[in-house]
Design goal:
single chain; 419 residues; mainly alpha; 78% helix; disordered N terminus; disordered C terminus
Length: 419
């Protein structure tokens, strides 16, 4: 969760408790940004999304290779959290709520099926491979939630975020995160040795979905008049600054009531998207996002320790969990049988786990439920699903665009012939 307390803020301008000086941290940021930019552009030259290069930069700079970036560094964690908040806020700004709601049934179906199938199959595979009840449950839970940050970034970079497939995947990924929070609360109780109550689960569910709905409904009435006033009296930079204030406050509020900071940030973007000032706000926010968002993806990559993949047993467990993780999400893309869309794109878009899977795995390791080997197996699953989805999406969406152009050309040719 994002901690906006004074110690976290001071960690950026004063020596970190771990002994990192201001100069060392500035050098760390410079190295991260240069590496992310260079490898991001290199990935694009090879026809892949920039996020792939940024993730590779994290792996190379992380503890398992060069060892320059420590993903557990508090100040870096803070910057990464701000990065994912800005990413989801800008995604919200680019999202048409009416269009999103128009595919709401499909998105909800994809989300639910995409949670149930991976969780059930992950649990049974883990249990069949010798894991006890609780480690198997934690392993299955780590397979449930799609990384909305990674998927949304790829669709946005390719200009496909507003497509039917993009909207379904975005909606499903956000719902996934909300459901993931509910599962996390239940698993946390199990890890702590307490039995979750039905009332507690229902309360957590109501809070998670209720916050998102309330923030959007109330925001549509309260926010536009405020920003209309700011547009008349202030400068464009003021609009962007106040929009960030709204995003940060909703992120904090979401966290405080038991939801996720990214849900609050996404809600803020949805609220501001239909306003007349949305484009001006987006221009201002993107400048800041260009600094923080790459840090988030580098931090995700740095959390992967490739040194732990030397054990044959760990690799086998990891590959088995990876297989069911991929199949479960891919099958979920075909669940809404009534909607006309490229379901292969939807299924692939739901595959990456990224930071969400890492949270579950880290919780299990810290609580002593998972062994270092099981944790490494889950890390392998996160690594494979995170890295395979962006290039596959790029290839599928490029083919889709080519097919659309061919259909348009054929239609024009037929019209010309008739004339």
């Amino acid at each position: 969760m994002l901690d906006l307390g004074l110690p976290a803020l001071l960690s950026v301008v004063a020596p970190d408790p771990s002994g990192v000086s201001v100069e060392r941290f500035l050098l760390l940021l410079a190295t991260i940004l240069v590496s992310a930019k260079v490898l991001g552009e290199l990935a694009e030259r090879f026809g892949q999304p920039a996020v792939i290069g940024e993730l590779v930069a994290g792996v190379l700079l992380g503890p398992s290779v060069i060892g320059f970036v420590d993903p557990t560094l508090p100040a870096l964690h803070l910057f990464a959290e701000i990065g994912v908040i800005l990413l989801l806020f800008t995604i919200g700004l680019e999202t048409d709520l009416k269009r999103l709601l128009s595919v709401g049934g499909a998105a909800f179906t994809v989300a639910v099926v995409g949670v149930v199938l991976p969780f059930a199959s992950g649990y049974f595979v883990a249990h069949a491979l010798g894991l006890d009840l609780l480690p198997a449950i934690v392993s299955g839970a780590a397979l449930t939630a799609t990384s909305v940050g990674i998927t949304a970034r790829v669709f946005s970079d390719l200009g496909k975020l507003k497509s039917v497939e993009g909207q379904i995947v975005l909606g499903a990924a956000v719902i996934d995160d909300v459901i993931g929070l509910i599962i996390l609360a239940v698993v946390s109780d199990l890890v702590a040795g307490t039995t979750p109550s039905v009332g507690g689960v229902l309360r957590t569910t109501a809070i998670a979905f209720g916050f998102l709905a309330a923030a959007i409904v109330l925001g549509r009435f309260l926010v536009p008049p405020v920003f209309n006033f700011l547009a008349r009296t202030g400068k464009e930079n003021t609009l962007a600054s106040m929009a960030l204030v709204l995003a940060f406050l909703l992120a904090v509020l979401a966290s405080e009531i038991g939801s996720a900071v990214i849900v609050g940030a996404f809600a803020a973007g949805l609220v501001l998207a239909p306003t007349e000032q949305a484009h001006a706000i987006e221009r201002g926010v993107i400048r800041l996002a260009n600094l923080f968002v790459p840090i988030f993806f580098v931090a995700v990559g740095a959390a992967v320790d490739v040194r732990t993949f030397g054990s044959r047993d760990i690799v086998l467990v990891g590959l088995a969990l990876t297989a069911v993780a991929i199949l479960g999400k891919f099958a979920a893309g075909f669940a809404p049988i009534w909607i006309r869309a490229n379901k292969t794109v939807i299924g692939v878009g739901m595959i990456p786990r990224g930071e969400v899977g890492l949270i579950f795995a880290q919780m299990g390791l810290t609580a002593g439920v998972l062994t270092a080997g099981t944790y490494s197996a889950l890390m392998l699953m996160v690594l494979v699903t995170t890295f395979m989805a962006p290039p596959l999406l790029r290839q599928l969406l490029s083919k889709s665009s080519t097919a659309e152009l061919d259909q348009e050309s054929l239609a024009v040719a037929e019209m010309t012939t008739e004339a």
